[in-house]
Specification:
The structure is a homodimer. By secondary structure, chain A is of the alpha/beta class. Chain A contains 13 helices and 12 strands. The first copy, chain A, has one domain (about 25-395): Alpha/Beta hydrolase fold, catalytic domain (Rossmann fold, 3-Layer(aba) Sandwich), CATH 3.40.50. In chain A, helix 11 links the parallel strand 11 (about 335) and strand 12 (about 365). At the A-B interface, helix 4, helix 5, helix 6, helix 7 and helix 8 of A face helix 4, helix 5, helix 6, helix 7 and helix 8 of B.
């Protein structure tokens, strides 16, 4: 069990040296969606928007079998399948999405879209528009001149893509973490579109605690002198600041149980000789965390992280001032899947939204993940809720 | 209740503009203890060690009524009382220590000592020796040439002070957080000295999770260009890095309930106009957290924070390689007071130590704080356990 979790984590979040090979994985490809211009929730116009997207399964004639998957903070639209049969790792929710799986691609047309300001701007399999993109006005990367964008903007880009395919309803929208924000936003802002909404390790708003916690992710980047107020595209990027941010995110997304198991495998001890002898040396568990974060940082863009943080901080379902107001519009049947050991978006957030929906008479369900991997239970162990999800999607 | 907590927090951790005035507070003064030289656990010799200390109550003739209070990470020996009757704030555990209080100064001689590498090196009421001190060899501040020190070293300095007063036993040793580490270290390393040990919001070792979490506090300081590998004493100090570290510490030491209550008082909303309009602006809750951290940073030294982090990371009770080995030596009657909402040193740590002591037949007790203020329950609301502590100290 330990080995499986570690392998999965390594491959999900870190440059992958080895991984699971699943013969039953779908093949997919990254496609590009272009918008000549897009107006943000804040009223700014972004010309020449490009985002990547993937799909699994087939759109039926009535175009009413669409399941939209919305991705998490450091994720992208590679939710399932492989680009090539030889890929060592399938998309992050491959355990959930595929032929005969809980989100059954024999029945559903499953689709996922790279977010605006996607973290992995330097990943060749990600297509996104953000501060690292070229500002057509200047011919140089936007940097901090890129407009602030919101979770609602991510949803509106997805909606434009769906409309370009002739789609006008979602059988379901399903997403983990920041993806849950998008799923809830869909249900709150476009209620007539959404039949079912599944929010995994979710939050329906960024409360004061969460907004402050997200800010901690941004601080190390701004402290790195190479960040240079966001103008680093023609010089050394703020890799150390970005690495520190990723170390913090990784720890907050996991749990003491996970880290202490990892410590065991490193023969971690508080009284290790190096850090006792020299203030400049670090413990084995710190070196492990640093190296993993550093290896991820290369495909990511530091400014994009700041913009993603801001999108999450600004989130309240429906963008109508209060959570209660936003949730009032939801018509979809809803399922909340928090993780009991989650330290990032704690279960109280799912319970709050579920409770408010229940109080207003909605058809709503909650089914907590019980494992000990913290927030990442929703990615690493989502198969624990495969049956619940299948039933939720099957029943009318 | 809310107002009381906020006032107390402001005064404990932030430059205090107002605060409780308790007419029943003791008067005390900071004294200086000097050691011509001190040899660290790691075998390094530090010449000319100075630490501050305070006492409350009177040492009896048999010198057997001593209660030692060991302080927390950002604290110092001002555990109770006031320096002047007009002081706006008494020592941090004044609710617990005083005439007729749970730690009754009519009966006990209560004593507390500023740690080595104390965080508040620039506070005129703190006397400490650390990287900001003058290295007699060079005539300049040590910076990173100061030796790594451990929780065991803090205890050995305290022991030298006690011995200089002719004291050779402790009726009890009591401390919160990093102070609990020192209390447990006392009981594990000098078992014949210690009659009773009370560990509040405690940890008996730094496990892999805790060591990694502590490292996150150090990262922002090292990222600040003004840190300059610890050589900043003749130039601008790394105040922004130190402020970021304090923001993280403050959040981890509190809880969602606390922050969301604070958010209410700020009229926090996810969709605040400033941060929606401009990536350079921040939410009200972030500004609140930043300002409070910044106002604390002036009295603190960034290198001292790095050394305190390291002392905590290296901690395992008894410094004998494993927690089990260290706890085996404990003879003291023990009481563990974790906080149920603690996100920093979670209750599992107290339960582990209590369980191991119970299994080896020790007289051990556990009494969790039930409030919602996180780790700081052990400072802000310790009076909730005043009766438990009084009884624990009274009974043989």
């Amino acid at each position: 069990m330990k080995k499986i979790i570690l392998t999965t984590l390594c491959c999900l979040f870190i440059t992958c040296a080895y991984g699971q090979t699943q013969d039953d994985s779908l093949l997919t490809e990254k496609r590009r969606f272009h918008l000549a211009q897009f107006t943000t929730f804040g009223g700014q116009v972004i010309p020449n928007v490009n985002v990547g997207w993937e799909s699994y399964g087939k759109l039926n004639e009535k175009k009413d079998n669409v399941v939209l998957i919305t991705h998490y903070f450091s994720g992208n639209s590679h939710a399932a399948g492989k680009y090539h049969p030889s890929d060592k790792q399938a998309g992050y929710w491959d355990a959930l999405i595929g032929p005969g799986k809980a989100i059954d691609t024999n029945r559903f047309y499953v689709l996922s879209v790279d977010s605006l300001v996607n973290l992995s701007a330097n990943n060749p399999n990600v297509i996104t528009t953000g501060p690292a993109s070229i500002n057509p006005t200047t011919g140089k990367p936007y940097g901090l001149d890129f407009p602030v964008v919101t979770i609602g903007d991510f949803v509106n880009v997805q909606k434009a893509l769906l409309e370009s395919l002739g789609i006008s309803s979602l059988y379901a929208v399903v997403g983990p973490s920041m993806g849950s924000m998008q799923a809830i936003e869909w249900a709150a802002t476009y209620p007539s579109w959404v039949g079912r909404m599944i929010a995994v390790i979710p939050a329906a708003q960024s409360d004061a605690w969460t907004t402050a916690a997200l800010e901690q992710w941004a601080m190390p980047i701004r402290l790195d002198a190479n960040w240079n107020e966001g103008n680093y595209y023609e010089q050394t990027p703020p890799t150390e600041g970005l690495t520190a941010a990723l170390m913090l995110i990784t720890q907050q997304a996991l749990s003491p149980a996970f880290f202490n198991q990892q410590g065991d495998s490193l023969a971690y001890s508080p009284l290790e000789a190096g850090p006792l002898e020299d203030i400049r040396q670090s413990h084995s568990i710190v070196n492990w965390l640093y190296q993993r974060a550093k290896s991820r940082a290369g495909q990511m863009d530091a400014n994009h992280l700041l913009y993603l943080v801001r999108a999450c901080q600004l989130f309240v379902a429906g963008h109508q001032g209060s959570l209660q107001n936003g949730l009032k519009n939801i018509q979809a049947k809803t399922l909340f899947i928090p993780a009991q050991s989650d330290l990032l978006l704690m279960p109280y957030m799912a319970e709050l939204s579920h409770g408010l929906l229940q109080a207003q008479g909605n058809n709503t369900h909650i089914a907590p993940l019980e494992g000990q991997s913290g927030h990442l239970e929703g990615l690493l162990n989502i198969q624990e809720k495969a049956k619940t999800i299948r039933q939720f999607l099957e029943n009318e």
